[in-house]
Amino acid sequence: MANNTSHTTEYKVLGRILVLLMFMTFLTISVTSFNLGAFSVTVALLIACFKAFMVLSYFMHLKYESLLLRILVGMVFVLFAVIVLITFIDYAYR
Amino acid sequence: MSKATEKIEYVSYLDHQSKYKGIFAWIFATDHKRIGLLYMYAIAAFFVIGAFLGLAMRIELIAPGETIMKPQTYNGIFTVHGIIMIFMVVIPGLSAVFGNFFLPILIGAKDVAFPKLNRFSWWIFMVGSAMAVASQLLKSGPPDTGWTFYAPYSTTTGTNVIMATTAAFVLGFSSILTGLNFIVTIHQMRAPGMKFFNMPLFPWAIYATAWIQLLATPIIGITLVMLIAERLFGIGFFDPALGGDPLLYQHLFWIYSHPAVYVMILPAMGVISEIIPTFCQRKIYGYKAIALSSLAIAGVGFLVWGHHMYTSGMSENARWFFSLLTFIVAVPSAIKVFNWLATMYKGSIDMQPPFLYALEFIFLFIIGGTTGLILGSVATDVQVHDTSFVVAHFHYIIFGGMGFAFFAAIHYWLPKMYGRMYNLKRAKILSVVIFVGFNLLYFPQFIIGIQGMPRRYYDYLPQFQWAQVISTIGGFILVAGLLAMISNLIMGVRKGEIAPANPWQGSTLEWQIPSPPSLENFDEEIEIKENPYDYK
Questions:
Q1: Nearest CB partner across the interface for B187, out of A1, A90, A91
Q2: Does residue A56 form part of some domain?
Q3: pLDDT at A6 (0 to 100)
Q4: For B202, which of B69, B255, B289, B469 is 20 to 30 Å away at the CA?
Q5: d(CA B95, CA B182)
Q6: Do B316 and A93 touch (CB under 8 A)?
Q7: Is B22 part of any domain?
Q8: Domain containing B82 — which CATH number?
Q9: Is A91 within 8 Å of chain B by CB?
Q10: What is each CA distance from B36 to A23, B95, B100, B286, in whole angstroms?
Q11: What is the reported pLDDT for B506?
């Protein structure tokens, strides 16, 4: 049942992703200077999710894995999003 | 479909000589079967300790007022009982013991995907367990928060909360690594020709469980770190005076701890799904429905945690939403029960000890499940929240469910694990004794719970004493039955008759190999069936 395929990502690509992640970190800090009200947490979470997506895709090679594995990891993110959403049903209406 | 392997001389995994000798041959073992046994011996020891702590509580409650201990001792004992039973017995129980031993065999593999990681998981489990025990013995005294460590009390009490929560944190790593190992094993190590829908139902249950272990356990880890940081540095996560929220702790705790209930019960359902077709000699009814319902329970089970918090001050909208989701999770559970009953219908039923325990499991699980609906509905939950009704419901699900399934599993698979048979007649009698003791212990708690008996209370009004006396008598019968059962099994392992390779006429892969199995499980050609429960 094993799926023994491997893929080598070029350093150039990894370097670009690293720069992108650093920019997103800078963005995370920068948006805190704006008063986004109730959306401040949403924006922070969206940026964090995007960064996690890039790390998973390139540094953890998910981009080159089988469709099944990508679906499984994608479902984990959906689950995480649903859990956060449900938690905020309490906080938004309390 | 079939799998051919080169025939090699049979040597039992128990007789196999590794480079280590004596106890080190066990501690440094990477064989999944030995690691399964290591978990079982440790968990059995913790279970006996937890059971005696429970009995001590029952003795204290036999009469109002002080009986054998002081109130603070009682608070410590129910916390220790909870920590030991939940984190060291029930959560790892079936998955770590029988998952380790039988998952690779049932899918036609020689071992798990990462044997050394598996060994490391057991080491971590033992370190975490030692820390949990130490938290009871250190100077400040055992934690008195209950196993839930609710803030804000847990952030202020002077007892050993940090050590206990660190122990739970460490134990969590063992659970995560075991779950990861099982997921990879099922994806990568299945025998050629064994597709997902050719797998027996126990591996399906273990697969669903492993996902919960992998995804939910880190949440409790982070939550406990937040609690420790709160105690050490007063950060204010859960302190309203510092902008925090005590309910945040409860949300985070139950986001893990409700799915953890399914870590406990899903493998139990897997065991029952193995036992019923064997002792009915019938193909299991609704194979795909049972397999997929395990995944459905795991998925929906992630979203129902709020039903533990109806009276905590959650918003109205959150309460009805969680109630709706809670009722939905009952559907896949019911699918399993109906399919088990349908399998028994017109089956050639053989009332052997594993099947007796499986029947008792179904009976107790139905009581636990239906009383869970009372707790899942907001209006009725408000009446019985934090009463002994919850204690009874919880024990019917966890002990009646996971506990009885564990007893069913050990009676089912012990001849395979050790190659010897226990005394069947004694095992049947003891299963009835344990069943009677269990119901005498816990059923009265439903009644006085509805009447208003609070849980975790050291003292109570005289009107509740009749039920407390019955419960304590039941506790003695239960513990006596459990000790006799353990004794019967040990005697079976040591002096029992030699068991044949397939004493129950089972159809899954473990019954095609010798008892006990060899180091690499499969020395001869084995048959992979389209349907693992192919009874003619």
A1: A1
A2: yes
A3: 66
A4: B255
A5: 9
A6: yes
A7: no
A8: 1.20.210.10
A9: yes
A10: 48, 9, 5, 30
A11: 95
pLDDT for B416 beyond 50: yes
Can you tell me whether residue B526 is helix, strand or coil? strand
The reported pLDDT for the residue numbered A5 is 58
DSSP structure class, residue B518? B
Is residue B455 less than 8 Å (CB to CB) from chain A? Answer: no
Shortest CA gap B190–chain A (Å): 6
Count of domains forming chain A: 1
Contacts of B326 in chain A (CB under 8 A): none
Average pLDDT over chain B, rounded to whole?
94
Residue B247 lies in a domain: yes
Residue A3 falls inside a structural domain: no
Both tokens of residue B156?
A: 């202020």
Residue B17 lies in a domain: no
Q: What percent of chain B has pLDDT over 90?
A: 91
Among B110, B250, B254, B302, pick the best mutation site for testing chain A contact (most A Cβ within 10 A). Answer: B302
Q: For residue A1, which residues of chain B lie inside 8 Å, CB to CB? A: 187-190, 192, 194
In a domain, A4, yes or no: no
Question: Is residue B10, in this structure, part of any structural domain at all?
Answer: no
- Residue-wise pLDDT tens digits, A36-87: 887 888 898 899 989 999 999 999 888 888 898 899 888 888 998 899 899 9
Q: Is residue B296 scored above 60 in pLDDT? A: yes
Rg of chain B over CA atoms, in angstroms?
Answer: 23
Mean pLDDT of B350-366: 97
What range defines the domain where residue A68 resides? 11-93
Domain-embedded: residue A5: no
CB B246 within 8 A of CB B240: yes
What single-letter DSSP state applies at residue B194?
Answer: -
Domains identified in chain B, total number: 1
Q: Does A12 touch chain B (CB under 8 A)?
A: no
Q: What token pair was written down for B433?
A: 């004794």
Total residue count of chain B as it appears in this document: 536
